[in-house]
């Protein structure tokens, strides 16, 4: 059983995916954390995150483990580092490289071979698991998403808003697997909902989809 949750930065994907996974007893996989891990590794080595020739070998040799909300890169806990703003921007750049995507998508697809998952990202319902039983596209206006990010991580609202807009544009316009809603995904605008409201709404969608048998189990 696969639940795919896609949407832009700050739409509430992580909170919801974690809560839904807990409630259903599924594994929660934050695919963005995988792009962030490769991006952090590139930055640590002074590699330009857009340099495909240097970043693809990193993605190919990275051993990434997502363990109960922690992010491990080659056995090292990088959970705190991957949330930094410069890593967010770098992750958006490495994720535009097709060779990086190929490698990480392969890793992401391996999860569902062994267990039921709730996976969040940008291309889960369109590319990683096009046959997912449940697909949700979470959205919110950029201003609300920026405010949530500032509440979560701190920082200057105007700058965070600008970074979110830049990341949206890059994620939506890249040639390989751009951020877009799958045709069979349920669209949910979370702008006017609080955390509990979003979780309830998504749990309702998941239950409806499962009980109506819509879609195909991968
Ligand atoms: O969800 P996030 O903010 O942690 O994602 C970080 C970056 O990784 C984001 O700018 C786009 C990219 N990403 C992607 O291209 N595909 C995914 N499935 C997940 C994230």
Overview of the structural elements:
The protein is of the alpha/beta class and 218 residues long. It has one domain: P-loop containing nucleotide triphosphate hydrolases (Rossmann fold, 3-Layer(aba) Sandwich). Helices cover 55% and strands 16% of the residues. The strands form two sheets. It has a five-stranded parallel sheet with strand order 2-6-1-7-8, with helices on both faces. The chain has a three-stranded antiparallel sheet with strand order 3-4-5. Helix 5 packs parallel to helix 9. It is globular, with a radius of gyration of 16 Å. The relative contact order is 0.21. The site of 2'-deoxycytidine-5'-monophosphate has 14 residues, from helix 2, helix 5 and helix 9. 2'-deoxycytidine-5'-monophosphate (DC) binds next to helix 2, helix 5 and helix 9.
- Distance between the first and last residues' Cα: 7 Å
User: Structural class of the helices, strands and pairings?
Assistant: alpha/beta
> How many domains make up the 3D coordinates?
1
- Main β-sheet description: 5 strands, parallel
* Helix content bin: 40-55%
Work out the number of β strands. 8
Strand content: 15-25%
What's the alpha carbon Rg, rounded to whole Å? 16 Å
Indicate the CATH architecture.
3-Layer(aba) Sandwich
What shape does the CA trace take? globular
Residue ranges: pLDDT <50 for 5 or more in a row?
A: none
Ligand list = 2'-deoxycytidine-5'-monophosphate
Q: What is the name of the CATH class?
A: Alpha Beta
Number of helices: 10
Strand order of the largest sheet: 2-6-1-7-8
Stated plainly, the CATH topology is called: Rossmann fold
Helix and strand string, N-terminal first? EHEHHEEEHHHEHEHHEH
């Amino acid at each position: 059983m696969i639940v795919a949750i896609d949407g832009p930065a700050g739409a509430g994907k992580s909170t919801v995916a974690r809560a839904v996974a807990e409630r259903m007893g599924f594994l929660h996989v934050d695919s963005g954390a995988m792009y962030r891990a490769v991006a952090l590794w590139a930055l640590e080595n002074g590699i330009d995150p857009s340099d495909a020739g240097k970043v693809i070998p990193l993605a190919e040799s990275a051993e990434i483990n997502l363990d109960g909300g922690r992010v491990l890169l080659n056995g090292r806990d990088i959970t705190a580092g991957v949330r930094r703003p410069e890593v967010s921007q770098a992750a958006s750049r490495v994720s535009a490289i097709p060779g990086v995507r190929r490698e990480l998508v392969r890793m992401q697809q391996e999860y569902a071979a062994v267990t039921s998952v709730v996976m969040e990202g940008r291309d889960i319902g369109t590319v990683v698991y096009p046959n997912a039983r449940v697909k949700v596209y979470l959205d919110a206006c950029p201003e609300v998403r920026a405010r949530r990010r500032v509440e979560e991580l701190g920082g200057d609202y105007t700058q965070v808003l600008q970074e979110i807009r830049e990341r949206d544009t890059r994620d939506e316009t890249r040639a390989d697997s751009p951020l877009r809603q799958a045709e069979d995904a349920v669209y949910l605008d979370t702008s006017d909902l609080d955390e509990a409201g979003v979780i309830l709404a998504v749990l309702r969608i998941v239950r409806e989809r499962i009980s109506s048998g819509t879609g195909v189990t991968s």
